[in-house]
What we know:
Shape: globular
Region (Disordered): 128-151
CATH topology of the domain at 18-122: Transferase(Phosphotransferase), domain 1
Protein name: Protein kinase domain-containing protein
Helix content: 40-55%
Organism: Eragrostis curvula (weeping love grass)
Number of strands: 4
CATH architecture of the domain at 18-122: Orthogonal Bundle
InterPro entries: Kinase-like_dom_sf
Order of helices and strands: HHEEHHHEE
Strand order of the largest sheet: 1-2
Amino acid sequence: MPAGTLGYLDPEFYHTSQLSEKSDVYRVVLLELITGQSPAIPISNTESIHISLWVRQKLSEGDITSIADPRMGGDYDVNSVWKVAELALQCKEEPSRKRPTMTDIVVELKECLELEVLHAMSCYSSVPSSANNLSGTSVDMHGEASDYPRQ
């Protein structure tokens, strides 16, 4: 019997008591990353809603900015955040055979990362060079900064 916190276990498991290769927590973790919220979002003093239902509702209203973690300060590619949210919701599909594989998820996340890198580069290139304090730093695709010799 798997152990886990409510909101992290595969919802299909509750009905079938069967785990599959697509029974993972990725859907909730992705939603937590982009929203900065816990799996249970309070909607009143006595009620809460699961993060996936909350995100699905906001997306159906076309409201991506209200789900993005405010600590990002609006500094993100809207298409990337939207794509991650939709990907996370696809990971919650029932039955599990409709969910993407982990390979599909990795491919999609890499595309989102590319959008974020392009967004960061466009923001970086729009800063006047006199205000640019990162001139000796590069960022690789893993988000790690490194110094390189200027030429």
